[in-house]
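Consider this record:
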Amino acid sequence: MHELGIAESALEMALTQATAAKATRVLSLVIRVGALSGVDPEALRFAFTAILPGTPAEGAAVQIDSVAALAYCPTCQRDFVPDTDHFFECPTCGQLCSTLKQGRELDLIRLEMT
């Protein structure tokens, strides 16, 4: 389960930011996870429940925001939601497209600290 490693990295970043801000507690974390990032949001949430106890982030709220995939067709010049994870075929013209505008995000986007 690579979500455990991701949660550990996010917690490390959060604690580094808390130390830099002279905060003693992390109250909440918000993580953005793209649909095509390869990360299971529920497994990530579970990983946080395993690693937060005993840290300055113990009891912190963990919010995971999902980001849908969005591809772009240069022929039609329009965005569309791809049907698959690997090939992005424009539903209007049938063109295979390689531009993914969103969906691979994996970001720690917000912290609340005291």
About this structure: The first strand starts at residue 26 and ends at 34. The mean pLDDT is 96. Residues 3-68+103-113 form a domain with the hypothetical protein PF0899 fold fold (CATH 3.30.2320.50).
